[in-house]
């Protein structure tokens, strides 16, 4: 039977392209719906015109999930800590397949799962594992895609200024990074819903990436595509850690998370090690060079 899918966090940076991908594949699903706070439903008027339903309600209320098999959470950092309660509500409402808001690095790696930035994702994974044990038939999928290829030049997180051709990064030139372009991430995500689970399997990881390299290689590639030489400075990540701790001590959680964010990718914490699942899907993802050419040529 065609699955019914409910999307949480549909207005975000990942949610918008994911909803667009679902629109393209609407006929493969019994229902595709966005769960929205009634006050924010206006954000989804275009999606509604294109056949996506809008369910008005709270993601903490089990009634919001009734009639849906698969729930995808694209919660941003501020809502991430609420995912265990969303999962409980989704299960109580009858959903039996949950995609938590992962869509990044493989946080199970040593030195990554302990890192502050990923705390709420780790808590969510622990909760999913526990609920899969006590809920017959409940399954969950972790989408591990590395960094968004379009985001690796983000000024705040990685210290790139692509117009000035400078990088000031808290990290190391030989640190590695895995990336996937957003258009490919949403294709993998929608297609993954149709990949079968093995008998008795409750946790499934989908490990995909469009490219993988060191920061030194990435900068060289950017220089080639932009035809410009970069002024590159790598700063010891301990300096960012000091700022993170100072923010924690003054109770500024937002700054604490942002400073933690500055050393995620450039210190080698955004990688998706193999074995990869790319070959389970019928397309070839964009390489990082292709993404750079799309973003920076001309
Ligand atoms: N790998 C990468 O490079 C990369 C980059 C970016 C994101 N990601 C991952 O992708 C996932 C989605 O991130 P995103 O950037 O799309 O997130 P986002 O744009 O910050 O927000 C996603 C959604 O969260 C909702 N939200 C935020 N605060 C909320 C609250 N207090 N209560 C209810 N809803 C709230 C927002 O809804 P409203 O604003 O409509 O309320 C929005 O639709 C996350 O897991 C993130 O870690 C990965």
From TrEMBL:
KW Transferase (keyword) present: no
Enumerate the InterPro entries for this protein: NAD(P)-bd_dom_sf, NmrA-like, NmrA/Isoflavone_reductase-like
Domain (NmrA-like) ranges: 4-242
Coiled coil ranges: none
- Gene Ontology molecular function, alphabetical: oxidoreductase activity
Q: Which UniProt keywords apply?
A: NADP, Oxidoreductase
**SUPFAM superfamilies listed in its UniProt record:** NAD(P)-binding Rossmann-fold domains (SSF51735)
For the keyword ATP-binding, the answer is: no
Domain of life assignment: Eukaryota
- PANTHER family linked to this entry: ISOFLAVONE REDUCTASE FAMILY PROTEIN (AFU_ORTHOLOGUE AFUA_1G12510), NMRA-LIKE FAMILY PROTEIN
Q: What name does UniProt use for this protein?
A: NmrA-like domain-containing protein
Q: Which organism is it from?
A: Mycena rosella (Pink bonnet)
